[in-house]
Amino acid sequence: MFNKLTILIAVALLALSASISSAELPVKTESSYVSPVTVAGATTVDAAKAYELWQARAWFIDPRKPGQFEAARIPGALNIEYDPDPNQSSGLSDQQLTAASLEAEVPKNEPVVFYCNAEGCDRSSWAAALAVEWGWEKVYYFRLGFPAWKKAGYPVE
Prior knowledge:
Elements: H1 2-19, E1 27-28, E2 33-34, E3 43-44, H2 47-55, E4 59-62, H3 66-71, E5 78-79, H4 99-105, E6 112-115, H5 123-133, E7 139-142, H6 145-151
Parallel strand pairs: 3-7, 4-5, 4-6, 6-7
Antiparallel strand pairs: 1-2
């Protein structure tokens, strides 16, 4: 019985891992990152939908390095830095993205939008995936991020 159960669990885990699309994971190449088109459990939005969420007072989290955030950002966004490689984190941010730092700012039942610098920046995809994993209920992934926002003519600060 134990062997059959072990085999069934192993088969289920293999099936689950095979169901994860490579389009859902950031891909690192030697010269750049390519962010995923979607993030499991999050809703991918374009600039128009992000603006609609912004007007509805959704939370906006910008996980970029503080210097990028300070240079220009979506008004009202919070800078909670995240880098999938902790050795590359600037260490300059007041906050690093953790479940506790996000919960200190954003209630789990309120909409939260993660953005960064377009498809070449994978920070927002990782941050959105973590928020889903940590139990946030209304997670939005703005893949094209700040460049698309600015190109659409929406407010910046």
